[in-house]
Amino acid sequence: LCRGGLAERLCRLQNRERSAISFWRHQCISDDKILSDKSGVLTVKILEIFEECTIQVAICQQLEQSPATLSPEDAVINAEEPILKVLFTRETAAHLKSRPQDVIHIYPPWQKLLLQNADVPVIMNTYFSQKVLLSEHSEAREKTYGLTKTLIRKNILSLAQTFRLDDLDDKLHQGSSENQVPCAPQIHNHGDSKQLPLALSAVNDSLLEMVESQGAVGWRDVQVRVVIQRVYCLPAREGCRSHTQGNKPLCATLIANSDPPNVRLCLLVQDAYGMFSEVQLQSLSSTDDIEQYCRRWEGKSCCLAGMKILQRTTRGRALGLFSLIDSLWPPVVPVKVPGQSQDSEMMTTDLPPPSFCYILTVQSGEIHVEVDEEEQISNLYQPPAVHGLKEILRIDGCNERCSFWAQVLYRRLQTKHNVPIDQREILLFVTDSTLQNVVHGIPKVVAVSVTASCVLSVEIMEALSAGSRLVFFKDALWGNGRIICVERTVLLLQKPLLCSAAGADLSELTGPVRLDELDSTTQASSVCALRGTVVGVNESTAFSWPTCNRCGNGKLELCPQDRELLYCNQCSEVVTTPVLKMQLEVFLSCPSRSQSTVKVKVWHEISIALFVLLTMLLFLQTYEVQSVLGKEVGLLNCYVHSVTSHPNCVALEEIALL
C-alpha cells in the first residue's frame, strides 16, 4: 500500500475497529454479565432472519427496557412497538448465533438509517451486540439449540434486477413484499427485439470492467471498444480457418484438421484506460495474409464482442508478451484513470506498466471483431520505432523489443540432432548502412536468430531463397548480445506505412557489402572474410558431383535414351553442360590468427572441362599437391563452424552470399 494513501488509512481504521470489537467482547466474557451501562442501548427481539449479499438481515421489534430478571420468553411483543430491520455483518452474526425470538442488546455507536419510500428503519453499525441470557431456562434452551445448526434463508439478489435491466417497463418490483426481496428476478419476455435490455447495444471502453462484469464464460450482448496496437500470428494447436471479405467483420468456421501452416491470427489491443489484452482469432488459411492484416488493421479502433477469457497471465508467466507490452508503454496520449472523473485534467500517462493481461479468444460461429477500416488512425496507437542496427547493438537493457530495416546477406538452417527440421532455428545474417559505415568496434554483419515459434510467411521464405532482400523486422527481441525473432515478431518485405525512425540512418546500401575479417574476436556461428596462405590439403575428404546448370539440382540421373548424358528430373530435360561442384578441405596460415589452425571447407563450381583436367591430374598423380602450397588465398566469405582453444583451431566453410 502507498504510504499515507487512502488504502493504508482504511486498512489501519479496519484494524482498529477489529481490535475494539475483540476487546469489548473479551470484557463481556470476563465480566460474565450484561454491561451495567444501559445508556443508548437498543433492545430488540428477533422475529425473522435471512441473509442477503453476505449480510444477515433481522426483522426485529424494539422492546422497552425490561427488568434485569426478565427472560426473553417473558418479553411480550407489543403491537405498538416499532418494527426495525437490523443488519449484522457475517462476523457479528457468527458470534451471536441468533435465532427468532432471541433478545439482543445493541450498544452504541449504532446508527438508524431512514430510507426514502420505506416505513421500516434500518439499524447499522451493530458490531457491539450481545444476546440476552438471563434465566436458567434460557441457558438450557441455548445449549439445546447449539447442538443443531440453524438454517437461514438466503435471498439471491441479481444485479440485473437491482439496476432493472430485465424490465424496461419498471414492472419488476410490483407485487413484491415491502420487507422481503424475492429470491429470483422476474423476467418478462416482450417478444420484440427492440425492447431488449439497453446493454445489448452498449459499447464499453474498459476491458477490465467487461471482464469483471461478464466473467470468464463469455461476453453476451455487450461490446468493448479498443485500439489494435499489433497484428501477428502465433502457432495454433487446433485448426480453424477464417474468412474475411472487404471491410466486413471477421467471421470464422471451425474445421477438423487444418492443412499446414496452422497459425492463429492474433491482435494486441489496448483500451482507453491503457490496459492490454491479446485476442486470439481463428487460424489463417495462409501466412501471407498477415501482411495485409497489419496494413489494414494496425492503429484502427475495433469493437470486440462474443469473447471469452482463455487465460489471465502475468509478467512472470509470459515474458515475451510483456516485453511487447513494455515497448508500448507508457501511452503516447493520456489515458483514463479508473474510479476518477474522466475530465482531461484527470487523465494521465504517469502510470505503472501493466502487471497482468487477459488472453481472450472467440466463441465459434459468431461475429467477434468489427474493425472500422475507414476510420482514421487512433491517437493511442504507437507505431514501431525503427532503429539502425548500430543503435540496437548499443542498447544496455535485456529483453527489449526493437524494429529495424536490414539487408539479408546469408541464411543458414541450424543443424541440431534429434530436432525436426520445422522446429530448428534459422540464422539470418543481416547488415545495414549504419554497420557498413563503422570503422572499428562494432561488427559489420550481425546474426538474427529466428526461432521456430516465430511464424514466417511463405512470401518471406521464397524471397530469401531467391536472393538478398531488404526485410523489415518488427518487434524482434534484443538481449544478451543477440537479436532473436520470437513469438509476436513479424517479418515483412515492405516497411509499414506508419513507423517512427527517431532520427536513425535508414539509407539503403550503395556499394558492395563488406564482412569483418577473421581475427581473435571472431566467434562461432558468425560470418567473416578470410585471407591467408595454403599450408595443407586434406585429400581424403575431397569429392565432387555434377549439378544442373539451369536449376542447380545436385541429384542428376543418367538419361534413359543416352546413357552417356545426364538428366534433370526437376527441369525434365537433358543436361548437356553440367556444373560440377567440388568440396576440398585446406589448411591456411592467417596473420590475424597466427597461433590457430585454420581449416576451411572450400566449395568450388567449375566447368566440366576444367574438372576433367583436375581429376586427371589428381588421379594420374601428375598433379603435385606441393604446387598449391604457399599459394595466397584472397578474401573468401566464410561461415564459422567452431572456435576452440584446446586445440587452438578455427573451422570454417566457404559460403556464397545471397
Automatic annotation (TrEMBL):
<dbReference type="InterPro" id="IPR028026">
    <property type="entry name" value="DUF4502"/>
</dbReference>
<feature type="domain" description="DUF4503">
    <location>
        <begin position="270"/>
        <end position="657"/>
    </location>
</feature>
<dbReference type="Pfam" id="PF14951">
    <property type="entry name" value="DUF4503"/>
</dbReference>
<protein>
    <submittedName>
        <fullName>SPIDR protein</fullName>
    </submittedName>
</protein>
<dbReference type="GO" id="GO:0070202">
    <property type="term" value="P:regulation of establishment of protein localization to chromosome"/>
</dbReference>
<dbReference type="InterPro" id="IPR028032">
    <property type="entry name" value="DUF4503"/>
</dbReference>
<dbReference type="GO" id="GO:0005654">
    <property type="term" value="C:nucleoplasm"/>
</dbReference>
<dbReference type="InterPro" id="IPR053054">
    <property type="entry name" value="DNA_repair-scaffolding"/>
</dbReference>
<dbReference type="GO" id="GO:0000724">
    <property type="term" value="P:double-strand break repair via homologous recombination"/>
</dbReference>
<dbReference type="Pfam" id="PF14950">
    <property type="entry name" value="DUF4502"/>
</dbReference>
<feature type="domain" description="DUF4502">
    <location>
        <begin position="1"/>
        <end position="113"/>
    </location>
</feature>
<dbReference type="GO" id="GO:0000228">
    <property type="term" value="C:nuclear chromosome"/>
</dbReference>
